[in-house]
Every structure is written in structure tokens, then in C-alpha cells.
Amino acid sequence: MPTVDSSDTTTADGTEQTLAALTANKYYSAHVSLANMAAGDTTVLRVYIKVLTTSSYALYWEETYNNAQTDQEIIFIAAQPSVWAWKLTLEQTAGTNRNYEWQVYKV
Questions:
Q1: Where are the chain's structural domains?
Q2: Which residues does 18 contact at the CB level (< 8 Å), separation at least 6?
Q3: What CATH architecture is 3-106?
Q4: How many Cα atoms occupy the beta-carbon half-sphere of 80 within 13 Å?
Q5: Residue 81 confidence class, pLDDT cut points 50, 70, 90
Q6: pTM score, two decimals?
Q7: In this structure, which of 94, 96, 97, 106 has its CB flanked by the most CB atoms within 10 Å?
Q8: Smallest Cα–Cα separation from 76: which of 35, 106, 38, 33?
């Protein structure tokens, strides 16, 4: 049964911002709300993992979203395993900085 690990509202600042950086041996998934995006906005969501404890974070998944998200305001990032570390980031690369609500689950 999944449980909430962490949640918050993050205001974009034009840099790649870490929403959650977790190190338990779990499966992680997340919801990120893009409801506040408007015309001209571009937002990139990324997931990184570490393969070994001594590894650096490596990009595992990336998706870019443009303009107002009228068809899909909530993005679900499917469960991914993490043996050593899992990190979710958000970067708004264009437009007015917006607030993004998010929640990470663990199993």
C-alpha cells in the first residue's frame, strides 16, 4: 500500500529545483500539478536515480510541458525503484514563475 513520503508547493525560480531526494530502498511515484501553467510557460520534470551508493545521480526520466495544461493538469510519474537514491526535480525554463503542488508516494 503506498504512503505519502513528502508533499509541498514549490515556486519555480528558473533553476532546476529538487522537489524530493529520497534514499530508502522503495518504489517511488509522484503527482505534480501543472494547473497554474499558462501560455508561454515551459516546465521540465526529471527523475534521477543512483545505481550504486558511490554513483552520481543519473537521469532516468524527463518530460517537457508547454503552455497551459488544460487536458492534463496533474502529471503522474509512475513507480520507479530506488535501491540507493531517487530524486524528482522541476525546472521552469520559460514564462512567469508559477507555483507547483506535488506529492511523492513510496511503496
A1: 3-106
A2: 87, 88, 89
A3: Sandwich (2.60)
A4: 22
A5: confident
A6: 0.92
A7: 106
A8: 33
